[in-house]
Amino acid sequence: MAEMKHDFSGIGMTSARTRGRLVERLRQQGIRSEAVLAVMGNTPRHIFVDEALSHRAYDDVSLPIGLGQTISQPYIVARMVELAVGAARRDKVLEIGTGCGYQTVVLAQLFKTVYSVERLAQLLDKARTRLRELRISNTRLRHGDGFVGIAEAAPFDAIIMAAAPTYVPEALLAQLAIGGRMIFPIGNVDQELRIIERTEEAYIETKLEKVRFVPMLPGLA
Ligand code: SAH
Q1: Which residues form the active site (predicted)?
Q2: Across the beta sheet with 139-143, what order do the strands follow?
Q3: Residue nearest to atom 20 of ligand 1 (CA)
């Protein structure tokens, strides 16, 4: 959980200026959490995209990662993670949609343990390799269906979905800890970001801004 416990300085990190600019832009876009800003500035996004695209790794855009999927734009990662770290505890987080593993690495620096589920085996394998390269050891990656979650590891203090379902998955609500927060895009063409906070008595849902994510799909591939 301690920020900066991961030292990525040996892996050909881009210049401090490029990272500084990313953090400055996130600040201007409204990201307030210093912990999240520090982690975003510390995480080598360029190693998660193809070499041909690595010059764009610190631009605020989503980029292709293969199989029709994309690495989320830095702003939306920061936004969702900032909402997640506002949970009552930062013990366990569940990420739905590992993709290239970038957000997984961001979360690994802010939560004690990260569970991440991906339905595409090929993407998961690549993400695993990268996490190993970065010597990240507090992540548990699983080839599985995000609609099902990981019941045996529940409850989770936070759940983040990187793909948009058209309805709230029941199983995930059940796996949310009391005091926990679920952050997710929802919808088909018109999507919006939402947060559900679980209290002792209820689930409180709040609608946030319009967003654009790849769809959350059932089944494995
Ligand atoms: N955070 C990732 C985002 C990848 S895009 C990154 O920054 O790279 C969303 C991912 O969600 C895709 O890899 C897609 O395959 C995955 N996904 C879609 N539906 C899913 C489901 N039901 N269960 C698990 N993963 C799913």
Answers
A1: 72
A2: 139-143, 113-118, 92-96, 156-161, 176-186, 191-198, 203-211
A3: 216
